[in-house]
Design goal:
The structure is a homotrimer. By secondary structure, chain A is of the alpha/beta class. Among the domains of chain A are: about 90 residues, Udp-n-acetylmuramoylalanyl-d-glutamate--2,6- Diaminopimelate Ligase, Chain: A, domain 1 (3-Layer(aba) Sandwich), CATH 3.40.1390.10; about 30 residues. In chain A, about 15% of the residues lie in helices and about 25% in strands. Chain A has an 11-stranded parallel β-sheet, with no helix packed on it. A 10-stranded parallel β-sheet of chain A has the order 9-12-15-18-21-26-29-32-35-38, with no helix packed on it. Chain A is flat and about 80 Å long. The N and C termini of chain A lie far apart (about 85 Å). Chains A and B meet through strand 22, strand 23, strand 38, strand 39 and helix 4 of A and strand 4, helix 2, helix 3, strand 40 and helix 4 of B. Strand 40 of chain A pairs antiparallel with strand 39 of chain C, so a sheet runs across the interface. Chains A, B, C: This is UDP-3-O-acylglucosamine N-acyltransferase. Chains A, B, C: Pathway: Bacterial outer membrane biogenesis; LPS lipid A biosynthesis. Chains A, B, C: It is an enzyme of class 2 (transferase).
Amino acid sequence: MTHPQVSMTLADIARHLNIPVKGDGNVAVSGLATLKDAGPDQVAFLANRAYVKDLASTRAAAVLLHPDYAQDCPVACLEIANPYVGYAQLSQLFDPLAVNRLEAGVHPSAVVAEDAKLGQGVRIEANAVVASGAVLADNVVIGPGSVVGADTQLGEGSHLHANVTLYHGVVIGKRVILHSGCVIGADGFGFAHDGTGWHKIAQLGGVILGDDVEVGSCSSIDRGALGDTVIGNDVKIDSQVQIAHNVHIGDHTALAGCVGIAGSTRVGKHCMLGGGVGLSGHLTLCDGVQVTGMSLVTNSIHKPGVYSSGTGAMANHQWRKNAVRFKQLDEIAKRLARLEKRHQG
Amino acid sequence: MTHPQVSMTLADIARHLNIPVKGDGNVAVSGLATLKDAGPDQVAFLANRAYVKDLASTRAAAVLLHPDYAQDCPVACLEIANPYVGYAQLSQLFDPLAVNRLEAGVHPSAVVAEDAKLGQGVRIEANAVVASGAVLADNVVIGPGSVVGADTQLGEGSHLHANVTLYHGVVIGKRVILHSGCVIGADGFGFAHDGTGWHKIAQLGGVILGDDVEVGSCSSIDRGALGDTVIGNDVKIDSQVQIAHNVHIGDHTALAGCVGIAGSTRVGKHCMLGGGVGLSGHLTLCDGVQVTGMSLVTNSIHKPGVYSSGTGAMANHQWRKNAVRFKQLDEIAKRLARLEKRHQG
Amino acid sequence: MTHPQVSMTLADIARHLNIPVKGDGNVAVSGLATLKDAGPDQVAFLANRAYVKDLASTRAAAVLLHPDYAQDCPVACLEIANPYVGYAQLSQLFDPLAVNRLEAGVHPSAVVAEDAKLGQGVRIEANAVVASGAVLADNVVIGPGSVVGADTQLGEGSHLHANVTLYHGVVIGKRVILHSGCVIGADGFGFAHDGTGWHKIAQLGGVILGDDVEVGSCSSIDRGALGDTVIGNDVKIDSQVQIAHNVHIGDHTALAGCVGIAGSTRVGKHCMLGGGVGLSGHLTLCDGVQVTGMSLVTNSIHKPGVYSSGTGAMANHQWRKNAVRFKQLDEIAKRLARLEKRHQG
C-alpha cells in the first residue's frame, strides 16, 4: 500500500454530500486541511466558531461551512447544515485504508481452524489465528497477529487491526472497528475470599458488541461472570479504557481515553464520559449523562446533565497549603457553625 | 471448541463441595445463574444479603446458601458456610476452558527454540514464540501469538492466554494465569538526567511472580533496575494495571483495574487497592491496607484500615463553585481563625 | 541467550567513564548493585544523599560517587561529577540485551513484504510482519510478533520489542525503543455527532517520533486527524500512557505511567508529568512544567514550575466527613464572608 493520491473535483465532493457548490466545481482537490493550513488543492471546513477568524485568509480550494458564514468566505463554498458531519463524511473519501480496498483472502501464514466459517470477501492477514467454531461474516478483515477465539462471531464488515485479541464466545456486530492491542472477552476480576486467600470465579458469561462500535488501542472489555457484558450500537470507546464484567453501555455513548468502569455498572444511551473518568461498580447512569475528565462517580445518577468531581490544578506551593486544609474541612465547617451560633446568640 | 453442555446432578455438585443436598439429588443441572435469572436446570447462590429478596421467587433447581437462609428457600438447598466460595468452586465445573481440556503439543506454526525445555503436557498454540533457554514446567499452556523471552521460567500449570508477552529472565510461579495483552518484564522507567537530556539506565533486574497469581488484560509489570520486581503468591491483578520497577506486592493482595504503582513501593499482604488508585514511589503500605477507588497515596501507611482521597461527583454547576473555593481554602481557614480570635478577645 | 557473565576490571570501567580509579584497578567486577546489596565483585553507586548512611558499611568492590564523598568511602572510588549518569552509562555495559548482540537476519517465520526496504544489520524475529512500503534503516530490530504497517519508516538502530504494533505511515526516528504491547498510529478518537449518532472522522494524519524516544509497554500514541501527532527527540514515555491525536510533545520531556493527554494539546520541552496526570485537549504547557501525580490540568500553563491538583489520602472515616464538606464549600465561604461583614459592621 502506498499513500493514495486521491483526486476529485469540488463537484464530485458536493455530489457526495448532496449539496451544491458555490464556485467553480471543476477545481481538483486532493485532500482536507484546516482553514489555516489548507492549500489551493485542499478543502477546509468551518465547524467551530473559534476558527471564524481564519476564514478570511484561507487559501483553501473551498470551505465546507454553515450557510450563515457563506458571505464571509473568500473562496468556493460548500454550504451544509452540519459542517462537522460533512467533514466526517468527506474524510472517508481520503482515507487510504478505505481507498486501497484490501484484497480478500487468507494469508498463507495465518492459521484458520478447519471448521471456522468465512463469509465472502473475508481477509485474514499474516500470522493471524482464527480458532475452531469462529464465524466471520462477509467482508470481515482480521489484521496481522490478531487472534479470534473459539466460537467467536464477527458481523459483516467488521475490521480487526493488528494484534487484537478476541477470547472465545464473543459476539461482535456489524461494521465494528477494533484497534490494535485491544482485548475483548478476558476474564472479569472475580474472586471469592475464604478468610485466608482467593478462589477464582470462572467467568462463564460472554461479551456482546453491537453494530458500529469502535474500540481504541489497548482497551479491555471483560467477559461477564454469569450473564454478558453488553456494549450497545454505535458506542465509541477510546484507547486505554477498562470495562469490567457485566457492564452494560447504552447506544451512542462515547467513552474517552483511560476511562474505567467497574463491574455490573449500567451506563445509559447518549452518555459521554471524559478522559480518565472512573465509575464504581453496581451503579446506574441514566441516558444523557456527561461526566467531565478524571471525575470519580460512586453513586448512581438519575438525572441527565453534566457531573464532575476533583479539583483544578494550581501552583504546587499554593496547592500544598490548600490540600492540608482539606483534611481540616469538617472541623472548619464545625468551627464556622459555632461562630455563627454565638453571633446569633 | 464448542461451548460444552456440562450436565451433572445436584448430588454430583454436593459431593464436589462436600456438603449434603436438601432435596432431590437426582435433578440434572447444566449451569449457574443468579437467583433471579436461574431456570429449573440451573443452580443459583445467595452470597449477598441484598439478594435475599430474590430467594422466595427463584426458579432455580437448587440454591447454594448459608444455613440461616435454608428455611426460606423454596427449592432444593445446598447449605454451606461461605456460599460465595462455594459458587467460586462450582463455577470451575462449568468453565468451558477447563472442561474442554486442551490437548498437549506444539502447534506447527509456533516457533520454539531448540534448547527450550518443555515439561509433560505442555501446549503451545499457533504462532506463539518461545525463546532460547526458556523452561516450561508440566501442563503449561502458551496461547496463540504469545511470546516467552529468553531464559524465562514458567511453573507447573501456568496459562498464558493469546498475545501475552514475557521478556527475558522472568520467573513465573505455578498455576499463574496471564491474560491477553499483558506484558511482564519490560524495562522499568529509569533515566538519569545530565542537565541537557536523558541517559537510559539499563534495567538489569528481573520479575518474579509467585504461585496462583492472575494478571488481567493489557497490564504491565516492569522488570527491576537492579534487584527484582516481586509479586507474591495469590496476588490478583486486574486489567490496565501498571506496576513499576522494583515494586513488591505481598501475598493475597488484590489490585483492581487501572491501578498504578510507582517504582520501589512495597505493598503488604492482604491489601486491596480500588480501581484507578495511584501509589507514589518508594512508599511502604503495611499488611491489611485498603485504598478506595481513584485515591492517590503519597505517604507510607503503617496502620491497617481503609484510606481515601479525592472528592465525590456532583452536578457540574455546583462543582464549579466549590472547586473554585478549594483554591481559597487556606485563606478561608486563616480568615476563620482571625474571626474566632477577635470573637474571643 | 543465556544471562551473560560479564567480567571486567575496575580499570576497564574507569576507562569507559573516562575517570580515574582510586584503588586497585585490577579487581574484577561482574555487575552493579546498591551500596547495601553490593558484594565484593560488584560496583555500587552513591547518587542520592539518602543513601550516604550505607556508604561506610558497603562491601562493594568500588563505589561511583561525587568527589565530596570520596574521603568517607571504605573501598575503591570512582569519582564523577554526576554519579547517577555514571551509573546509567555503566548499566549499559552489563545489559544482556546489549552484550548478547543479536544476529542480523530475517526469521523464516516472519512475513516481510517484497517491497519493504531493509538496511544492513536489520534483524526481524519470529512471526513478525512487515508490510508493503516499510523502510527499516540499518540495525533496526523487530521483535517477535511485532507488526510494522505499510509505508512506515524506522530510523537507524531502533528496536521494537515483542508484540509492538505500528500502523501505516508512521515515522520513527533513530535509536527509538518501543516496548511490548505499545501501539503507535491507531486512529484518534474523532467522531461528529449528527444529533442522533456518530459519524467516524477518518484519521488522515500520521505520527512522528523523534530520535532517542522510548515508549513503555501497552502505551498508545494515536495518529493525527489531519496533521500529525509529534513526539520530540529524547522524549521518554512510560507504560500505560495515552497520547491522543495531534498532540505535540517537546524534546526531552518525560511522561510517567498512566498519563493521558487529550487531543491537540501541546506540551513543551523539558517537562515532566507524574504518574496518572491528565491533560485536557487543546491546551499549551510551556517548557519546564512539572505536574505532580494524578493531577488534572484543564487550563494552559504559561509559566515553568510545579503544578498540582487533588487531595492527599487519609483514613476513610475522616475523608468521608471532609469530602461531604467539599460539596458545601461555596456555601461555607459565603457564610464566612457574611460573618466577617457583620463583625466589621
